[in-house]
Amino acid sequence: MKMLHTELHEIETAAELEKLIAENENVMVCCGRMGPMCIPVYGVMEELQEERTDVKFAVMAFDSPEAGIIRNNDACRGFMGLPFTMYYKSGKVAHATSSIQNMQQVTAILDKQFSTSNVENA
Amino acid sequence: MDEIFDVIIVGGGAAGLTAGIYSSRARLSTLILNEGAIGGQMVLTEEIANYPGVEKTSGYLLASTMKNQARQFGCKIKSNLKIKTYDLEGEIKSLVLEDGREFRSRSVILSPGGRPRPLQIPGEEQFKGTGISYCATCDGEFFTGKEVIVVGGGNSALEEAVALTSHAAKVTVVHQFDHFQAFQHAVDQAKTNPKIEFIMESELRSFSGNGVLKEVSIEHLPTGKTTSKSIDGVFIFAGYVPNTAGLEGIITLTERKEIIVDSEMKTSLPGVFAAGDCIPKRYRQVTTAVADGTIAALSVAEFLRN
User: Fold this and answer.
1) Minimum distance, in Å, between the CA of residue B66 and any CA atom of chain A
2) Hey, is B288 helix, strand or coil?
3) Is it the case that residue B47 has pLDDT exceeding 80?
4) Which CATH number is B132-236 given?
């Protein structure tokens, strides 16, 4: 059951997330609630998904048991602020952030992690 | 861009969206340029129960409805952008974005809103999300059984301090003055809560830790003495600042950097109006922002008729 009211694709199961990151080179997933720290990040992603066609954008409900795949990820150790935002490159976690992020911060991460010249995560 | 809009509205919060609804419904070609997410401070409110005519809603849903209303009347909206320069003096106003795009109009409504006041001390950005939070409702559960600090002395700070006691083992309120700005009922609620302690006339000076926040330093202002305190989390509610940094020297601002307007929301420049949290006022509510936006849009319509 979908729990987030956004214009972004909502991932409902861990298996769906695994399939998404296996089939797409660049994936950004924001795992949160309909709260004040999460909604601005969804807004940024809604704007970006029109122009950044090289990236698959999706959301996942933090309170879904299936979201354990993100909540319990090693990259999220120590995170104490919603949303948990994951950046996957070629099936692996390239970067993760905790709490609110603005357009400049998200764009900087996308440019760094998903650049074709980024050999670190290639 | 060749098009000259009748009005450009800077900001897409309650004031800006309302101005957009009114001006586009008045058949004025209208563009909203919004630096953050649509809805402004409104989307930071989980539940709105005192908006007349709406029994209960969320800030997000109210903002979405306002956005759709504005769009249905023909208002164009561009968000998550950055305005680099304002040229507001001539008959045709010009706003240039950081990416080089220029937008022009015959009038401008400034409703850039405000943002939570950061403490601007070492470690604040580093530990955001790993110990520092600006939303107790969002992140309180991560501090279950732990000890946290709440910074501030207004209604938000004390109400959130009380809310945090349902998760945290202990909440310490750190406030710079010897008294609170909050309403008395909020002060009473906090003071009678056995889990809440107070450190008055003090300010945080730095955050430190190893991956996650571990410690803060606190200065007692009257004596200048600084002490360290081990802590699991810090929630910051230190008020709001108007988003008017790019307007300094262009338009008349108060000492608090708010835009000075008259009762018709006119600023110091002809054809430039302002509305919402960026103007001086005592009460900053969705309803007062909506009222400001309405007045500004109607004043623009009159300005353009003349």
Assistant:
1) 15
2) helix
3) no
4) 3.50.50.60
Mean per-residue pLDDT of chain B = 93
Min distance A70 CA to chain B CA atoms (Å): 15
> Which of B17, B42, B43 would best serve as a mutation to test chain A binding (most A beta carbons within 10 A)?
B43
For chain B, the domains span 4-116+240-305, 132-236
Mean residue pLDDT of chain A comes to 91
> Which pLDDT tens digit goes with each residue over B147-187?
999 999 998 899 899 999 999 999 999 999 999 998 899 99
Regions of chain A with pLDDT less than 70: 116-122
Q: How many CA atoms lie within 13 A of A23 on its CB side?
A: 7
Does the distance separating the beta carbons of B38 and A80 come in below 8 Å?
no
CATH architecture of B4-116+240-305: 3-Layer(bba) Sandwich (3.50)
Contact B130 A98 (CB under 8 A): yes
Q: Counting Cβ atoms within 10 Å, is residue B89 exposed (0-12), middle (13-18) or buried (19+)?
A: middle
Q: Are strands B102-110 and B93-97 parallel, antiparallel or unpaired?
A: antiparallel
Comparing CB atoms, the residue among B43, B61, B139 nearest residue A81 is: B139
Sign of the torsion formed by the C-alpha atoms of A73, A75, A80 and A82:
negative
- pTM, two decimal places: 0.75
Best of B139, B149, B213, B232 to disrupt the A interface (most A CBs within 10 Å) is: B139
Average pLDDT over residues B131-152: 93
